Amino acid sequence: MENQQERLDRPVRRRSRLRFRGSRVVLACVAGCAVLGGVLVLVLPGERRPEPPAPPSPGSVAMAAVTSGVPAALPDLAELIGEREKRVRKHPDDARSWAVLGTAYVERGRRLADPAYYPRAEKALRTSLRARPKRNTEAVAGLAALANARRDFPAARRWGEAALELEPRRWTTYPLLIDAYAGLGEHESAERMLDRLTELRSGPAVLARAAGVYRDRGRREDAAASLADAAAGARAPAERAAYLERAGQLAWERGDLQDALRHFQEAVRLDPDQRAAQAGQGRALAALGRTTEALNAYRVALAKQPCPRYALELGELYESLGMPEAARVQYDLLRERVRGAVAGGADEELVLGQFEADHGDPRAAVRRLRAEWRRQPGTEVADALGWALHRAGKHEEALRFAVRATDEEHSGGVRSALYAYHRGMIERELERYGSARRHLAEALRINPHFSPLYGRAARAATDALGEPPDVGVPEMDGD
């Protein structure tokens, strides 16, 4: 016999079962309607499937790249420039569009080795500043990028520091300052900027920038690992190709020809406009003895990106092959491109001084490089000036600059076969045979293929110096 409580609970349990059954019915109806609705969407005439979102335009892709300091594809850059030019014609007071246009001109000029873009970039960026004189960080940072592209590192530092003062947490300013400090030989400042950058941001662009600092500090393994991670994380082919080109250059600097060639070839496959990688292929192929392919790679690179440095490299390759007339053609191209750079406000005194020291007038090289040293005393300038002084017969003074380029305290720690070769040859001239032998051996150990002309000279000089004397026999070193 039910007790009174059970009789009271029975209606409650019944209502609960009804609610549960009701909810199942409702769910079934909802599911059925959903299926039916899906069928109706598929079969009813006049109905259209929802369209997938349109892919971003090339201009918007390039804009995202340019404004975040990431390499952009040349066709995308052209699209962006066209879009911004139309925009500023209709809205001449649009400060941001002027800043984006100026920065895009900088990147295109850099990628094409065409300094004619730089005056246009400066005009656009200064127009942006006139339209918005205060807190216009994009235009100020764009002027820092322009100064770096022109190799005007003091101006790049000034504009970069001004941009940083406006927005200390704007991460894209830090890479500009890293480049400026490295160009001035201020490696500790560059490293400090990298530390602050990595606190604000991570990702492929930051990894690639870190690799440059690591390389300049002699940490080549860390640099290679950072570039590998950057390339793996890159979103666009042009970005990945740029990081692979830098990885190829690192491999070349350590004398790993096959690895360098693989990186350069993959970079060109991903982005056929990656002319630095094509020149890199020429460098690696020449060292591998594949001369015809090397010459073709250099010619293709120079046809689309007539960079003075590529012309110098190709000219020296022709010289090494006993083809002086072909070399002179490249040296004439170098002079022509340097004149164009000057017209565009760019500084190519370094490469012109390097050329004059070995293939022209060493005294003229000394004059040019002394002025460059006073303006921006970077490690590469120290090496070039030391070598020019040596070629002009001023060996004692030359050694001071060669030591500065190779001494870790001043150079930052970069390991360069060319710098070691220069120092060794200067020491040999000064009869400091022990140091000369060490530095020439170091050059060949770092990269025995560092130059088609001077790699041979390094080996010949090392052979002429012979083996070091037996232990206990003093060597007249002069150190």
Automatic annotation (TrEMBL):
Native organism: Streptomyces venetus
Keywords tagged on the record: Membrane, TPR repeat, Transmembrane, Transmembrane helix
Name of one Pfam family that matches: TPR_16
Keyword field contains Iron-sulfur: no
TPR repeat start and end residues: 241-274
PROSITE patterns per record: TPR (PS50005)
InterPro entries: TPR-like_helical_dom_sf, TPR_rpt
Gene3D superfamilies: Tetratricopeptide repeat domain
Top-rank taxon, per record: Bacteria
Spans traversing the lipid bilayer: 21-44
SMART domains registered for this protein in UniProt: TPR
Record's protein name: Tetratricopeptide repeat protein
